[in-house]
Amino acid sequence: MKTLVCFYSRTGITRKVGTQIAEALSADVEEIIDHKGRSGPIGFVTGGKDAFLARTTEITEAAKNPADYDMVIIGTPVWAGTMAPAPRTWIMKYAGKVKNMAFFCTTASSGMDKTLAAMEELSGLKASASIGFYERDVKKGDTSERVKQFTSSLTSA
Ligand SMILES: Cc1cc2nc3c(=O)[nH]c(=O)nc-3n(C[C@H](O)[C@H](O)[C@H](O)COP(=O)(O)O)c2cc1C
User: Whose Cα sits closest to atom 8 in ligand 1?
Assistant: First the structure.
C-alpha cells in the first residue's frame, strides 16, 4: 500500500509521531507548512483563535500528489479543541483526490476524540484508522505501542 504521511507541527511533537508512523509503514512524508507566523505568544493566541473559528490559512502547495497514494495519513496538534488551521486547509484542498485517509493528533491533555472526528467529517471519507497521542508520552519516547496499534489497524477500501 503506497502511503503518504502529512502533518503540521508547531513545536515538533506531531512531527515526531508522524515520522515514527512513516518509518513503520515505509511511507513518504510531507510536512504541511503554514505561511502564517505561529511562533511565540502572539502566534499561540492567534493560532488558538484561528483554530477555534475553524479558519483556513495559506499553506505551501503539496509537493507530492495525494492522488498517487493508496492511503494518506494526516496529523495535527490539537488547537483549541480541534485541528490546527494548516491541516484543516490541507484536508479542504486535497481530500477530494484521496482514496483512503487516516488521522492522528497530539495533545497536551484534551480534545483528541473531537479533533479526530472533526478531521474525518471534514474529509468526507470514512477514516481507515484514527488515534491520538499525549505530548508527555511523545516526549518520554513512549509511543511505539500506539504507533504499532495504529499502523496495524489501517485498512484500505
Ligand atoms: C494554539 C494552541 C492551542 C492548543 N490547544 C490545546 C487544547 O485545546 N487542548 C490541549 O490539550 N492542548 C492544546 N495545545 C497543546 C498542543 O496540542 C500540544 O502541545 C501538541 O502536542 C503540540 O504539537 P506540535 O509540537 O506538533 O505543535 C494547544 C497548543 C497551541 C499552540
Answer: 80
